[in-house]
Write a structure and sequence with these properties.
Number of strands: 37
Shape: globular
Largest sheet: 6 strands, mixed
Number of helices: 25
Length: 872
RNA sequence: GCGGGUGUGGCGGAACUGGUAGACGCGCCAGACUCAAAAUCUGGUGUCCUUUGGACGUGUCGGUUCGAGUCCGACCACCCGCACCA
């Protein structure tokens, strides 16, 4: 009986409706089964989903469906990272209210995601721009404030002149705003900060325990936190030009061992000492201004020369009364790291060496590689930063740099400068506190009021939420909240006199730093229901893009620590397993008129040469590089189009096949068609099975074809499960292809001839296994196949079948037989054959006998169940 | 500059702790079916040699080993992250 083609357009909505009606994917918090929380990074509602979303959510859905089939109570929620700039840009360009724009986008994208057939618990959905959500975020802010984790300070900020807002250090990339791409300027503003640096050490140390995170991400965070162990040393100021009140120059160094190689001191242009000296020295003042300007004018840093200006100030060397060193203002010293001052040791630091050579300062080698001659070893052009032996360093000579470090630390700890200990060990971090103030409308309002009399007054909990006003206008640049008197002007909660609301809103990274916790109890009257949060967290498997390796993941790790202090949850690490998926990339096409979208391109191949032709005009196009799908190169494929023509399952299946999930996947028309063909082929196979295998009773033992079919099926079942556990979806799919290949022959033979009940039973079992292992990837298709076979219950509700351990091991093995390391023959032998039996059998092989030509082998290596090597 | 990663057929990629390199897919070639095409099915497909058979082959060079894509050393290319962090 011929079967109709599988029609996803008909099948997919039908099964989606059934799943929804049965509320299969809604998760209860009081379910006794073991929990599993799988989460994909929630999307920004930009307008429509793109292929990156399809890949991300397809992966998460495979895990969710698999874990559910394995008997877990799976939490798999979805929401919207809905505050942010694009909504305001849309408002300014198209006169749409950010709220309307955002919620309309959410509606569109929700429909799109639903068409993918994802097993999501939509009952827990929320958007971060819902008042119900940011209300609780405001409460968290107040909690943090109570716990000393929030403070306000005037600071130099990164100002994005295009977006008219402040950026966190993390949001400045190569001196440009991460979103606008505009060169960032420095401004002095009073900002709110989260004390993420309170947790520097914890955030660093705990990385060790995140063994289900990619090594790469852990390393990136480690470098970002940037711990360094050094010594804080006071250098006594001795010159008569010393500014009043300053007795010592405080310096931080990780290389106190090189202290006898010091030849100058360098301080930042903003260093108090520099400012002080500049007050009476116009030339120096001009130099400092120059430094600051260059510092702000972005990546010219790379080429910027090391320049300095002698302040005339002199300091005394800690170990030599008579040794005085000049203090320079230098453009390469940063005020916000360490103490803003360094001592320069030219022989041990390339930057210091360049500086010393430029200004004619002494260069004394103090660390020498082992084996060099100390009388002739010199540093001229290249600094030596490696390990070795101390030289020219008085009492340190002969020791290692590490020993010298300790010796200097101990000796200086006993000395004093101006009544204070001269040196102490100090740990420094590169990590800065997180500035969260943004001069934007479309964000979570910061719940404080500024009162002339009382200062900064936090709102009381019962005064929350501070809702965003709806009646705003975007006619002028800047923050509309600043121009909204009825919202802005309030009475001081403390004294009642006229006051103003804080008009800055929070960085949107705050919104995404705790949403995973809110999902565990989205209707709780507090930010979390601690019992629910502790039951569900940490997220077992988090999946998203590598672009969030630092910002979002570090902030979230901070948040769970801070929320723990506030009693909102009791986990330190929010994400137990992290997976960073690769991008979806596509070929680019270019014609005379610019980039051409794939949908308008026809590809041809002649004599191995590929050509791209414009569908309408027939113009020959240049095939360009394979790049991330983006609007600018127009190499985007719309998921809606793919789902409409091939169905969601095909899109999901193709996304998961071929490329390892952590690498980029190249989207090709041919690849999608291949996936679609495979589904159709499998559909025909299931159709044949439905015709021939319907009334077969199970048979206990089997042999021949039946046995090999059973073994193939159970091996696949075992392997696919293991591959999914390791998120190796591409390998799981290869196994599925193999199984289909292996059962299609025997199935046809059954259909063509007399029924062989053993084989039929084996095939029936194999086909059911096939459906089960495909279900996580192609869930609608699996339901349809199951129904075709007469299955009464839903695959989405079914348990993962258990494989039969006896069937995954063969009783015989085929061993390659090598002679001197080269394969010359094969030997099929009982799996448990002992060494002697194998050797005997190998020596009997014709290939081995002719190679030996009567002689005895020197050695025979038998690796059980693996290989035999005969050494002659 | 520092840190990390990757390198395997025409292409995407398999190969667990060293043990038959190229699973699976795409593409391509041939055949079957068809008036024809599409669809489908079957077979083939690393390179080279005249073959039965053999030689070579996992970026390059060298090493360890009975045996190396896998381990060690040196180098090359590309990609990513950080970047004046003292």
């Amino acid at each position: 009986m011929a079967i109709e083609r599988y029609n996803p357009r008909d099948a997919e909505p039908r099964w989606q409706k059934i799943w929804q009606e049965q509320r299969l994917f809604e998760t209860a918090n009081d379910d006794p089964r073991p929990k599993y929380y799988v989460l994909e990074m929630f999307p920004y509602p930009s307008g429509r989903i793109h292929m990156g979303h399809v890949r991300n959510y397809a992966m998460g859905d495979v895990v969710a469906r698999y874990k559910r089939a394995r008997g877990h109570n799976v939490l798999h929620p979805m929401g919207w990272d809905a505050f942010g700039m694009p909504a305001e840009n849309a408002a300014m360009q198209n006169k749409v209210h950010p709220k309307e724009w955002t919620y309309a986008n959410i509606d569109t994208m929700r429909t799109q995601l639903k068409s993918m057939g994802l097993s999501l618990d939509w009952s827990r959905e929320f958007a971060t721009c819902d008042v119900e959500y940011y209300h609780h975020q405001q409460q968290l802010f107040l909690d943090f404030l109570d716990n000393g984790l929030v403070y306000r300070k005037q600071s130099k900020v990164n100002w994005d002149p295009v977006d008219q807002t402040v950026l966190a250090n993390e949001q400045v990339i190569d001196g440009r705003g991460w979103r606008s791409g505009a060169p960032v300027e420095q401004r002095e503003l009073t900002q709110w900060f989260f004390r993420i640096t309170d947790f520097s050490e914890d955030l660093l140390e705990s990385l060790e325990d995140l063994d289900q995170w990619p090594e790469k991400v852990r390393l990136m965070q480690k470098n970002w936190i940037g711990r360094s162990d050094g010594l804080h040393i006071s250098w006594e100021i001795v010159s008569e030009t010393a500014p009043a009140g300053e007795a010592a120059l405080e310096v931080y160094t990780t290389r106190p061992d090189t202290i006898f190689g010091a030849s100058f001191m360098a301080i930042a242009a903003d260093h108090p000492l520099a400012l002080n000296a500049a007050a009476s020295n116009p030339e120096l003042a001009e130099f400092c201004r120059e430094c600051r300007r260059a510092g702000t004018s972005l990546a010219a840093l790379e080429t910027a020369d090391k320049v300095g200006f002698d302040t005339g100030i002199r300091v005394r060397h800690p170990f030599d009364e008579n040794w005085k060193l000049p203090v320079y203002v230098a453009n390469f010293v940063l005020m916000d790291y360490g103490t803003g001052a360094i001592f320069g040791c030219p022989s041990g630091d390339q930057r210091d060496l360049d500086f010393a050579n430029k200004y004619g300062l002494p260069v004394v080698a103090v660390v020498m590689p082992k084996g060099e001659d100390p009388t002739s070893f010199q540093i001229t052009e290249d600094a030596y930063v490696g390990d070795g032996v101390m030289i020219n360093s008085r009492f340190l000579d002969g020791s290692t740099p590490q020993q010298a470090f300790d010796t200097v630390a101990e000796k200086l700890a006993d000395k004093t400068v101006a009544g204070k200990q001269q040196a102490f060990r100090q740990v420094n971090y590169r990590l800065r506190d997180w500035g969260i103030s943004r001069q934007r409308y479309w964000g979570c309002p910061i719940p404080v009021v500024h009162c002339d009399a009382c200062g900064v007054v936090p709102l009381r909990r019962e005064e929350l939420p501070v809702s965003l006003p709806d009646d705003i206008d975007f006619d002028k640049p800047g923050n509309p909240l600043d121009r909204h008197p009825t919202w802005r002007d309030v009475a001081c909660p403390k004294c009642g006199s006229p006051a103003k609301r804080e008009t800055d809103t929070m960085d949107t990274f705050v919104d995404s730093s705790w949403y995973f916790a809110r999902f565990t109890a989205p209707d709780a009257s507090e930010p979390t229901d601690p019992a629910a949060a502790d039951a569900w967290l940490p997220v077992d498997q988090y999946i998203g893009g590598i672009e969030h390796a630092i910002l979002h993941l570090l902030y979230s790790r901070f948040f769970s620590r801070a929320m723990k202090i506030g009693g909102h949850l009791d986990v330190k690490e929010p994400f137990k397993g992290l997976f960073t998926q690769g991008m979806v990339v596509h070929e680019t096409y270019r014609g005379k008129g610019g980039w051409v979208a794939p949908a308008e391109v026809k590809l041809e191949e002649q004599d191995g040469v590929r050509r791209a032709v414009h569908l309408d005009s027939g113009e020959e196009l240049t095939i360009g590089a394979i790049e991330k799908m983006s609007k600018s190169t127009r190499n985007v494929v719309d998921p809606d189009d793919i789902i409409a023509s091939f169905g969601a399952d095909t899109a999901r299946f193709f996304m998961l096949s071929d490329s390892p999930p952590d690498r980029d996947v190249i989207w090709t028309e041919a690849g999608v068609e291949g996936a679609y063909r495979f589904l159709q082929r499998t559909w025909r196979l299931i159709g044949d099975a439905a015709d021939t295998l319907q009334y077969v009773a199970p048979v206990a033992s089997s042999a021949g074809d039946a046995a090999s079919v059973s073994r193939a099926a159970h091996r696949t079942l075992k392997a696919v499960g293991e591959d999914i556990e390791r998120l190796a979806f591409n390998k799981a799919i290869a196994r599925i292809y193999e199984l289909v290949n292996e059962i299609s022959g025997p199935l046809r033979s059954v259909a063509d001839s007399e029924a062989n009940t053993e084989l039929c039973a084996a095939l029936r079992d194999a086909v059911e296994i096939l459906i089960a292992v495909m279900a996580p990837m192609t869930p609608h298709f699996a339901e349809e196949c199951n129904a075709l076979l007469g299955g009464k219950s839903l695959v989405a509700k079914s348990d993962w079948p258990e494989y039969d351990p006896a069937l995954v091991i063969d009783s015989t093995v085929t061993l390659p037989v090598q002679i001197n390391g080269k394969k010359r023959a094969e030997l099929t032998i009982a799996r448990d054959a002992d060494q002697q039996t194998v050797e005997y059998a190998v020596l009997g092989l014709p290939a081995v006998q002719s190679a030996l030509s009567g002689k005895a082998p020197r050695k025979i290596i038998v690796v059980p169940q693996r290989i035999v090597n005969v050494v002659i």
